[in-house]
Every structure is written in C-alpha cells, then in structure tokens.
Design brief:
The protein contains four helices and ten strands, in the order αβββαβββββββαα. By secondary structure, it is α+β, with helices and mostly antiparallel strands.
Length: about 200
C-alpha cells in the first residue's frame, strides 16, 4: 500500500511536469491544456479560484463532495480509509447513450506541501479490491493517473490544476468536448470554481 500511494503521487507529479502542453481553450478563469504522447492523451484544466489553497485542498481531497460540482459522478462512497492521507472509493458515473453506467474503484492520495513553493496534491488512480469485484450492471473502468495540484497565489487565492491521463474508458466523455461539440469540461470547471468559492 505504501508503494501504491507513493507511485500515485509520483505519477501525478511526473505528468504535471511533462514538457509540451498545448493550450486548447482559454476562458475567463479556466484554461484547458492537452498533451499527446503516442496513444496517450492527457489534459489539464487550470482554474483561478478566490479561496485559500488550504480550503481548496480540504474540499477537493474529500471525493464525497465531488457530486456537488461534477455531474459525471453519480455516487461516491468510501470503501476503506487506508490512512489519514489515503482513501479507497467506489464511484459510479452516469451512462453515456447506448452504454452501461461505468464504475471505478480508486485510490485517492493527498499530500500537503513540504516546502512553501510546492503545491498541495490530490492524486487518483484505479486499484483492484477483492471486496468489490466488477458487477454486471456496470462497465468497470480504469483511471491511470488523475488528480489535482493546488498552487498558492496569495493568502486568499490559488490556482487549481486538474489533470487526467485519458484511457478509452474516459474517452467518450472527452471526445465531444475537445472537438468543441460539448462544453462539459468547461462547465464542470466553472461548477468546481463556484463550489470552492
């Protein structure tokens, strides 16, 4: 478990530091970036938020709040509190037209910065839990690497970056978005800002 938590945080840190991010779209308080490497597409949503970084961190690291601003989350329950900083959740998401609803078993690892210039980190990846085998009513999907980095800007504002390394499981939600026929990433980002503020 210690290795899984470490690799969860390390994978997100590595993704965030990769060179070659391209701006896909800019709005008032939201910038959407993409990064392509072989068959892997990653995206980053950068949000300017008028709350202290510590507040954003505590709200974003508890995934039970996620349904309040992310309409892709139908249900989210804690399966196991591994430690103060690690929890395993079971998440279900709304079905896309013609598909079964999806479900995910995810490990969420949170870390406070060790040094002032470092971000707060909330890393997410899929894990396998014997107690929750795939169920016939859902299509079990996988998150390779996702999460938030929260950078302090001032005592009352921060920059929240959401990252996701896209697998085929998440692709249907995104394809329409990046081609511009849907605004779900932008809408979700604006809902997230509203929720945090």
């Amino acid at each position: 478990q210690a290795y899984l938590s470490y690799s969860n945080i390390a994978a997100l840190t590595h993704l965030a530091r990769k060179p070659g991010w391209d701006i896909a779209k800019t709005l008032d308080n939201v910038t959407i970036w993409t990064h392509e490497e072989g068959a892997v597409l990653s995206f980053k949503v950068e949000m300017q938020v008028k709350v202290p970084s510590q507040v954003a961190f505590s709200l974003l690291s508890d995934f039970r709040f996620r349904q309040r601003w992310d309409r892709h989350f139908l249900t989210c329950k804690v399966l196991q509190a591994v430690s103060e900083e690690e929890k395993i959740y079971h998440v279900t998401s709304a079905p896309m037209t013609g598909h079964k609803p999806r479900d995910f078993v995810i490990l969420v690892s949170q870390r406070q910065p060790c040094r002032p210039q470092e971000p707060y980190t909330v890393a997410v990846r899929s894990v396998t839990l014997r107690a929750v085998p795939p169920s016939p009513e859902f299509c079990r999907s996988e998150i390779l690497c996702a999460g938030f980095q929260i950078h302090t800007k001032s005592s009352s504002s921060c920059t929240v970056c959401y990252f996701n390394q896209v697998t085929s499981g998440v692709m249907p939600y995104l394809a329409a978005n990046l081609t511009g026929s849907s605004k779900s990433i932008e809408d979700t980002a604006l809902e997230c800002i509203k929720f945090l503020e």
